[in-house]
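Input record (one chain):
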Amino acid sequence: MAALASPSWADGAVATADDSEGLPQLTVDEWREVQAAAEAAGDTEAAEAAEYGKAVAENQAKAKTGKLVVVPMLVPTLIKKAVKAALKYGGHKVPKPLRPYTNKILNVLDNTEAWEEAGLTTGFMAVGIPPDASQQAAHWIVVFVG
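The corresponding structure, as predicted from the sequence alone:
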């Protein structure tokens, strides 16, 4: 099977979470919100993963100024937990077209070992997510993790 090309909307300018034409990255403040929601729900594991996501976002923000912060070595399991925490507790931070499908997306992520765009897209379509939303979700997750 041929690899899927990145969707045309992915090449656009930086977008907000409410913008269906782009892929938002969560900011430090948005990670704090995810972390607080996870803590309020008693989900310690997701809160810890959101803490890691916050540290990565801080590093990305400070990289622009040349002042990097120390972020622990990337641990694939922790990255995956952070993505799942964002989907579960991020609410309006998740791109608008993906919101109706967050539970299905989480289910596929729980049952998928390799998080690659083509495989995720196929998995999302298999659980009934429309092809355009499947590709957008897969691309957002791969960029998020990348």
